[in-house]
Amino acid sequence: MTPTRRHVPILIIGSGVAGCTAALTLADAGCDVLLLNAGDNLADGNSELAQGGIIYRAAPRPDDPADDDDARALEKDILVAGHNYNYRKAVRWLCQQGPLCVDEVLIKRAGVRFDRNPDGSFNLTREGGHSAPRILHRADYSGRALMDGLTAQVLAHPRITCLHRRAAIDLLTSHHHAKNAQFRYEVDNRCLGAYVLNEESGEPETILADWTVLATGGVGQVFLHSTNAPGCVGAGVSMAFRAGVDLANLEFMQFHPTALYEERSNRRPLITEAMRGEGARLLDEKGRAFMLRHDKRGDLAPRDVVAQAMMEEMLHSGAPCLFLDVSGVKQDLPTRFPTVFEQCREAGLDIRKEPIPVVPAAHYFCGGVLTDTRGRTSMRGLYAIGECACTGLHGANRLASTSLLEALVWGVSCGKDLARRAASGGMPTGLAAAIPDWQHEGDERHDDPALVAQDWANIRNTMWNYVGISRTDARLRRAFEDMRDLVRHIHDFYKRTRISRRLVDLFHGSQTAYVITQAAMRNPVSLGCHHRVD
Hints:
The protein is an alpha/beta fold. Helices cover 37% and strands 16% of the residues. Strand 1 (5-13), helix 1 and strand 2 form a beta-alpha-beta unit.
C-alpha cells in the first residue's frame, strides 16, 4: 500500500516545462527529487498546449558582438508589451540567460528538434509585439515538442521519482500546522511540504519536504472561455494565499485574441499568434479588416490591445465572433500549422478555403506568487516557478513566446540556487515530527457533480462577465459580493464533505477567483490586461 506519510529532500508540485527543468537541474546536481503532477502523465498542463514557440538568441554571442542589438531590442519589446510595468531586472535576466538555457537544456540535453531552413539554420518566426523574427518553433506544436524531450529525460533520471494523480491540497507550514507551539514562536514561517490527495486511494498523503517548489501552472479555468488545460484552476496561488505568501499583479490576466469559436467544452482550442505573424488578418463579420483602426501595428499589436479591440468590435456589432483570414499565409497550412489545421478540420472547417471563427479567451496569468530571479518566495523553504509565479517579467501584459522561455530560465535558476541551499541543510530537527497527518473534518459525501458544476458555472460566468477583458467599478463590486458569498458557501461545503479531487479543484478555483477580483478592485488604473473602461 502507498505510504500516507513520507519525507523527501525536495518536492516539486507540477510537471510542465518549469517543473521538469527544475527537476532535471537539481537531479543533475546530485539532489533527489519527488515530482508530482495531478494528471495521468507529466504532460497534462498548459506547457503541452503551447503552439507558437520560444524566443531564441537574445543575448549577444561571443563570436558575434553585433547580436547585442537583438538583446536590447527584445528587452524593449518586452517592456513595451508590458506597458513598462515590468521588473527590469527580471527582463534582463531572461535576455541574458535565455539563449544558454535553450542551447544547453532543450537542444543538447532534451534533443528538441526545432524547424530549420533548407540551409540548416533555424527557421525563426515573428509574433505580435516582436520587432523581429526570433521565435524557435516546431511547426505549431512547440510545447508538445519541448515536453516530449524534457519528460523523456525526467523519466529516465534515477534521482527523480514521479508520482501521478496527486492533487496538492494545502502547503504545510511551521506556523499553521506544527503541533509543538515552540515552532510557532519562530519569527520565520517555513514551508514544510504539502498535503496531497492520492486519487488512486482516495486518501490524502502528508509529504514533508526540506524544500518545496510550486510549478502548478495557470488560472485560466476560473473564466468561462479559456485556452487552458482542465487542471489550471490556480492551485498554487490558492495555497500560497492561505499560507500567507506574498502575491503580486493578480489583476493582470491575459486574454488570447484568437481561440476557435466552437461549443465543445470550456477549453477553447488555441489559434496560434504565429499565424498573424506570417500574414493572417482579423476580419469583422462583414469580412473587413479592422485592427488598423485600433492600433498602428495592426494585427501584430500586443495581445491586450488586440483582445480589447476584438471585444469592442463584437460589442458594437453584436456579432458572437470575428474571423481570422489565413489566405495571406504563404506556407503550406497543413505542414506549417498542423495542429490548427486538424482542430479546425475536426470542427468542420477547411481553413484553406474559409476563414476561422475566433473569440478572445483567458490564456495566461501575468500575476502569481511573488519571486526573485531564482524563484525564491517570501516564505523560507518555498520556491515558485512558471505561470503560477510572478517574476515581474511580463508587467501588465505578456509578450508572445516569453512564457516557455520564462519557465525554462526560472526552472534552471531555481534548480541551481536550490541545489546550493539544499547542500547546507534542510528542515530543523524535530519539526517534521510536529506536523500532523491530514484529519478528515467531514464525512458527508456531498460532492454531487451537479452541485459542483453549478458552483463552477457561477465562478466562471461571474469572472467572465465582471472581471473579464473590460472592467468597471460596478462590475468588480458585483463580482466581489458574489464571489465573497460563493467562497463562504464553498468553504462550509468543503468542511463537511469528504475530500475529493472535484472538491479540491473547486476550493482552489473559488479562492483564486476571489483574490483576482480583490486585486482588480484595488487597482483603479487601466493598464495592459487590466482594462478599466471607466
